[in-house]
Amino acid sequence: MSFNKETSPPPPPPPYPGTTTLTIVSERPYVNDYLPWSILNLFLGWGFFGVIPLVFSIICRNYKNTNNFIGAQTMSSLALTFNLLITLGGLIGWIVFIVLIYIYVIAVDNLT
User: Fold this and answer.
1) Which of 11, 46, 59, 81 is the least buried, fewest Cβ under 10 Å from its Cβ?
2) Rounded distance, CA 54 to CA 80, Å?
């Protein structure tokens, strides 16, 4: 068997007629819904106030699932804003509550 250097392998077959190459590019923007933080704020924000960011987070997640990214971005920024406010207010509230309990315990001990 002899090999001739002048011959080359056959060219690849042409693509099948009627076929197209489909490239799927997902351009879904990332929108954070802050849901875990909102759930934490249920406890930190004294219950009632913690519901406010939770509602915005759930609406944001709903908008993301329906591909309404403009609405999701709006709800995301509202959830972030209220999460910040409730977290800071809740921390200040808990600190004041603990200090008042401490002062009350000292006052009751001084009465006896």
Assistant:
1) 11
2) 10
Distance between CA atoms of 63 and 81, rounded to whole angstroms? Answer: 18
Distance CA 37, CA 57 (A): 9
Within 28-68, where are the H helices? 35-44, 48-65
- What 3-state DSSP class applies to 88? helix
| Residues 23-57 pLDDT 10s | 666 677 889 999 999 999 998 887 888 899 999 99
Q: Which two tokens stand for residue 31?
A: 């929108």
Inter-helix orientation angle 35-44/69-111, to 10°: 20
Q: Which residue has the higher pLDDT, 16 or 61?
A: 61
20: confidence class by pLDDT, cuts 50, 70, 90: low
